[in-house]
Every structure is written in structure tokens, then in C-alpha cells.
From TrEMBL:
One of its GO terms (cellular component) is membrane. It is a single-pass type I membrane protein. Residues 35-74 form the Leucine-rich repeat-containing N-terminal plant-type domain. The chain crosses the membrane at residues 7-24. This is Leucine-rich repeat-containing N-terminal plant-type domain-containing protein.
Length: 158
């Protein structure tokens, strides 16, 4: 009888530990994937060229890039799902020619907000056609930039 009570007690104890772990899982900070963290830092460098200072929370040694400003991650996968970079580039840095391939590592990206960043065009062979490769992208905001009318035709055709 004591053996059954002992086994039952430990079974309930293990069950409680599992329930507590499952409930905490949703509260733990997500750590984004290394390839996405590297891509975010490359994007920050591109936004800052030649010497900008925006996005101070985007720090190389900080693994939890889902906690960085302007980034939204999936709570289940930890992947970046949205980048809210409106008015991020310092206007004094002048026009920006965007390398759209910087966004390709974000496989679950469904929203990209880049309005008011003085984007004047694309880096040669790294333009808006690269954005078509983002199969989950549903929202793209490029308003209030410096494009001419021909610059975004393929992105608009999606």
C-alpha cells in the first residue's frame, strides 16, 4: 500500500512540474535564429550608413533579438514576422538605396514597414524583385520615400 501511495505521489509531482513548465513556456523570452540576428545587424548597418545611430537596442551580443525595438516575432517559432522600421533612417544621412536581399533570411516575415526612410531606389540586382521571394509577405509599406514611379512595379504586382 505504501508503495502505491509513493508511486502516486511522485506521479502527481511529475505531472505538476510538467504543467508548470508548459505554462511558463509562453512567458520565456524567445531567442531569434542566428541567421535572422545576423541579417538584422546587417540591416541596421545599411540603415546607418555612413554613420547613423538609430535602433540602439540592436546589439550584436544580445541573443534575444525578439526583444529588440521594431521587431515582432512569432510566439511559437521565434522567427521574425514583422519589421516596423518607419522613419528609422536619419534624414540627414541622405538618400538610401535599399538592398532588398537583406530581408530574405526572414522566412516568416509577413509585414515590412519602411515608410519615410528616404529610400530612393534599389541596390543594383538587389531590388524589389527580391521582395517577391518573401512568400509570406502580406503588408509592405514604402510610403513617403523618394522612389520614382517605375521603382516598385514588381512589388506592386504581387
Amino acid at each position: 500500500m505504501r508503495l502505491k501511495a509513493f508511486i502516486l505521489f511522485h506521479f502527481i509531482e511529475m505531472l505538476m512540474v510538467l504543467v508548470m513548465m508548459a505554462s511558463l513556456q509562453g512567458r520565456l523570452p524567445l531567442c531569434c535564429l542566428g541567421e535572422e540576428r545576423i541579417a538584422l545587424l546587417q540591416l541596421k548597418d545599411a540603415l546607418h550608413y555612413p554613420n547613423g545611430t538609430s535602433l540602439p537596442s540592436w546589439i550584436k551580443g544580445h541573443a534575444h533579438c525578439c526583444d529588440w525595438e521594431s521587431i515582432i516575432c512569432s510566439s511559437s517559432t521565434g522567427r521574425v514576422t514583422a519589421l516596423v522600421l518607419d522613419s528609422t533612417r536619419n534624414q540627414e544621412l541622405g538618400d538610401w538605396y535599399l538592398n532588398a536581399s537583406l530581408f530574405l533570411p526572414f522566412q516568416e516575415l509577413n509585414a515590412l514597414y519602411l515608410s519615410d526612410n528616404r529610400i530612393a531606389g534599389w541596390v543594383k540586382n538587389k531590388g524589389s524583385y527580391e521582395l517577391l521571394r518573401l512568400s509570406n509577405l502580406e503588408h509592405l509599406d514604402l510610403r513617403y520615400n523618394r522612389f520614382d514611379n517605375s521603382c516598385c512595379t514588381c512589388a506592386a504586382s504581387r
